[in-house]
Design goal:
Blueprint lengths: L4 H30 L19 H6 L4 H26 L5 H13 L3 H11 L1 H19 L5 H24 L2 H30 L7 H57 L1
Amino acid sequence: MKTPPGFAKIQNLFSGFVIPIAFVIALFVYFVLMGANSNFQGNDSDNLPLQGNFLGLIYKGGYIVPILMTLLLTALTFSIERYYTIRKAYGNLAPVKFVARLKEFLTANDIEGAKAECDRVQGSVASVAKSTLDKYEQMEKDTLMTREQKILDIQKNVEEAISLELPGLEENLPVLATITSLATLMGLLGTVLGMIRSFAAMANAGAPDSVALASGISEALVNTAFGIASAAVAMVSYSYFTTKIDKLTYAIDEAGYSIAQTFAAKH
């Protein structure tokens, strides 16, 4: 399933604008929605949030919150994008079932039927299989190469096809992997800053500043929670999609191996 050049450019533009757009949305939500005076006691954002007001509580997490929100939005956006891309790569039939069908056509020596099945199923496995079947027919007509050379050429075709498919499937996954670590670190940074503010409030002469103390504790806990949530979303998504890609790669290998073995057995 080769990505059309025009679609590839759209994908690149999409990937490049996701993080800036997510950051703008995060700033808007943080300052306009969460920072609204109506969320706080005395109708003032410098005071404590109203009892049970979740938006005001998150706002007290400090300026690390928009960064963590950006990471979370980016992880969710790329997760949705990868889901639809990989789902399309799976085609109209599960790879395991498609490979089984392909073997049936090869056993019956029905190459044209196998190619028609590839056109019907579509997806990455079917695309590679059809490319390999074209190479199969080309090798059948070749009279100069030896049998071993033809088999190696078919296997090489499979390897080249996989190398062309994988970059499109793995696109944006490194971003998810980075967010897994970065969100945890940013959450930890926010926690440390919150604790610093809390200890500073406790260090005041006489009675501690209760508002500053509560704000510092809120900042620490909110950033901890946001960092863990963002990292968890990115980690689960990354693991899920890499597993899906591994299954596709295995199916492509099996389909290519079956075609090469069929050629070896019949020639």
